[in-house]
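FORM 7B: Structural annotation worksheet

SECTION A. Query
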Amino acid sequence: MSSRAKRARQAPKKHLVPFTLLFIAFIFVLIMGIGTASAFAQVDKWLEDLPSVEDYSAFNVPQKTKVYASDGITKLADFYLQDREPVEASQVSPYVFQATIAVEDERFWQHSGVDPYGIARAAVNDLIGGSTQGASTITQQFVRQTVLQNEANEITLERKVREAFLALEIEKRYSKAAVLMMYLNTINYGDGSWGIQSAALHYFNKNASDLNLPEAALLAGIPQQPTYNCPAYYPDNAKQRRNHVLERMRVNGYITQEQCAVAQATELELSVREKPDDGIYLAPYFTSYVREVLENEYSFDVVFKGGLTVYTTIDLDMQAEAEAACESKEARLESDVEASLTAVEPGTGHIKAMRGGKDYETAEWSTSTDMKRQAGSTFKTFALLACLEQGYAPTTPVSGASPITIDGWLVENYGGASYGTLTMASATAISSNTAFARIVRTIGPDAVVEMARRLGIKSTLLSVPSIVLGSSGVNTLEMASAFATIAAEGRYNAPTPITKIVDQDGTTIYEHRPENEQVLSPEVAYAGIQILEGVLRGGGTGALANLGYQEAAGKTGTSDDWHDSWFCGFTPQLSTAVWIGTREERYIADNVGGSNCCPVWKQFMNYALEFYESADFDQQEAPEYKSDLSFRTSEEKAAAAAAEAQAAKAEEDRKAAEEAAAQAQKDASAAEKDKNDAASSAGKQPETGSGGGSGGSGNSGSSGTGSNTTGTTGAATGASP
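SECTION B. Predicted structure
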């Protein structure tokens, strides 16, 4: 900035410095009634602990942190204690300079930081018992607003001396133009606006460079009393003050009488731009999460005073579709039911969309980040992956019979359904509760918790059997992140809302780089993906999420009493978790993940995937499976062995009975044949068969052969089980 350029000392003004200091001491002698030597000693004492003004950083004033969307252009928020946007001299209307000098310090271009005439006037007024008068120059006011801001409210000669000395030092180091810009970028213009650019934007919704004469005069008049001269609240006061500024501009020769008259007759013509209390303009749930992340990483002063520029991951087009998909579903539900959606990019951890509620103004608590709600059967995914990692094959059988009680824990399938023997894959597709109760009984709840932790679940998880049915509370951000880990071939990346942070000097202090921590083997991840793809196929609980044109996988979930429904689904490009419920937990009729959340997920993903190239999951070799693994207990194995033995014995007995029956039939057929043969030999007609042969033997003649064949075939058919 040009305001940072140091000014070479100007010889013609050197004589003013000692004169001014002597003048201050003289005034002090008059007021205190003490000797000159004592006065100088006291002044020296007052100046002992003054801050240095050698570096421009000494005058750093609070600057707001700016937050941008992923396009790097659209502003999401300004975080600040003082709404200030520093600008260059070239970005300010000339009227602003003229008006400010005319009303605040008409001798600004002549003095060296302190105006002896103003000091004398104020001192004499103090001596005669008049009211306290200000004699501060623009430079002194700048000192008071910056390096001596902790003393700004002290109305003492000591503060005036310290202020005057620093003003002199500043003007020895910086040009007049630089000092004037420092002042204009610092001063309070009322209604939370600090600096001329923020004031111009707030009151007139235009840049400081575009201010016309009456507008510039209006703003120049505010700093005298920022509250009572504020045009937004005290327009009459502001107009009166503006007209006074215009008159001072005329007296000082900046404008003509005609210009002054026209400007004084002009109405205020404000266009006040409202400011959100928290500084958030767009995507409030996501942006408030950005603020939370910043506060966790940096000090309060850095976040709200440090002038950071923060670039985030959110895609506002995806965000708009997330809102639309959720609102579309909410329109068909009860008024207090709402949807939450969070989308995370596999391989980077970038949060692309975050819908944490339907109304941020009335409920800032985010269902995406603050919520802790039961995720239902989506947690079966973590049990499934733990099993695959331990060597259980997708085809490993498991009973889906219902109900089942395990250590006092009663488990039933949805709708009371009872299944026979299922494979682990089919049990996942139809989401059999009792099958997964048997699975967690075998592998233990610790294995489920450990897998969930590895994949990205950060909430507190209780290591109890019911964890497999999602009994612990989570939110959509961590669930989307965990399923993104699966989509990324087992590589975990912490979900992040921020890509880069630049400080006020333009230095990049943070840039996100994916960790890509391999927490699950690609083989196990792909085996899990193949099974979870089955959830979206016909017969699977997530069939309504099937995209058709794009490979996708996921898991549905429904908590007890239908308080919460979920669908966590992913493609190679994007992982999205959807939740539907109420902030105050209650029963919601038919709140099932498959029917409620899947359509929301599908609507959003159909749009979001337009921003990505088509992709399939990378195929991997199958993990090493162990054929001897089973989900049955030792008692069940013993019972199964006994049942198998009994079944084998029954089968053996059946076969023996069939063989005996067949032999008896054979014997009967042989006897019948002998009888017929005997009859034929005696010249008699056979008792069976429809045709007689011309020969004397049953082996001769086609009719005789046909009779025997027919008889044999009939006997065999009758003996079939």
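SECTION C. Observations
The chain has two domains: 2-265, 323-611. The longest helix spans residues 634-681.

SECTION D. Sign-off
Analyst initials: ____
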